[in-house]
Design goal:
With 65 residues, the chain is an alpha+beta fold. Helix content is 49%, strand content 15%. Strands 1-2 form a two-stranded parallel sheet. It is globular.
Length: 65
């Protein structure tokens, strides 16, 4: 599924994305992909690992462009 999330700064887009990834990681049978800018990839991986834990974070791949 491809979904665009638009809003101003401070609207809660990043928190919503991490919450959705956590929910999808629990129910997904295949890998999940999170596409982020290059400079945001490490921070995204770290945040997902903290929110999901190691088992669920293995289902998510952070890809940068």
């Amino acid at each position: 599924m491809f979904q665009l999330l638009l809003g101003r700064s401070g609207f809660g887009k990043t928190s919503w994305i991490y919450d959705q990834m956590a929910a999808w990681a629990e129910t997904a049978s295949g890998p999940l992909f999170l596409l982020v800018p290059e400079q945001f990839s490490f921070e995204s991986e770290r945040a997902l690992l903290q929110r999901l834990g190691t088992a669920a974070a293995n289902h998510v791949q952070v890809i940068s462009f």
